[in-house]
Amino acid sequence: MKKKGQALVEFIIILPLVLLLLLGIVDIGKILYTKITLEDTMSEVVTLYENNKTPEEILEELDLPKTTLTVKEKDEYLNLTLTKDISIITPGLNLIFKNPYKLTVMRSILNETQ
Predict the structure, then answer these.
(1) pLDDT at 45 (0 to 100)
(2) Any idea what DSSP says for residue 93?
(3) Chain centroid to CA 68: how far?
(4) What mean pLDDT is reported for the chain?
(5) Which of 1, 4, 58, 82 has the smallest count of CB within 10 Å of its CB?
(6) Are 30 and 87 in contact (CB under 8 A)?
């Protein structure tokens, strides 16, 4: 019996599964890292918005590429929303997360201009 041939066949069977697992970990890590970064950035966005900066000026000043900032009034509150698209590289993971995955962070603040 040839043990080397058996080990090679087992390796070839397991390799795609291990690669998919590693790519999935990278994608989910990228999503979590981006979400934490956007949540941290949101406090700076609120501060800049309260200092009468426009959304375009805020995005330019904070250097947020491929990120959109929307401001909507709702009753006496303002909803500030940061949205960023993240591309998924793991095959099959885009069935769970749409590709590109839209990551959204929202903060509500009291509209003091009323």
Answers:
(1) 93
(2) G
(3) 12
(4) 90
(5) 1
(6) no
DSSP β-bridge partners for residue 106: 81
Which tokens sit at 97?
């997360």
Which structure tokens are listed for 13?
A: 């069977």
- The four Cα atoms 64, 70, 71, 72 give a dihedral, to 10 degrees, of -160
DSSP state at residue 14: H
- How do the domains of the chain map onto residue ranges? 3-110
Q: Which residues pair with 108 in a beta bridge?
A: 79
User: Average pLDDT of 13-36?
Assistant: 94
Mean of pLDDT values over 37-48:
93
Strand order in the sheet with 77-86: 67-74, 77-86, 101-110
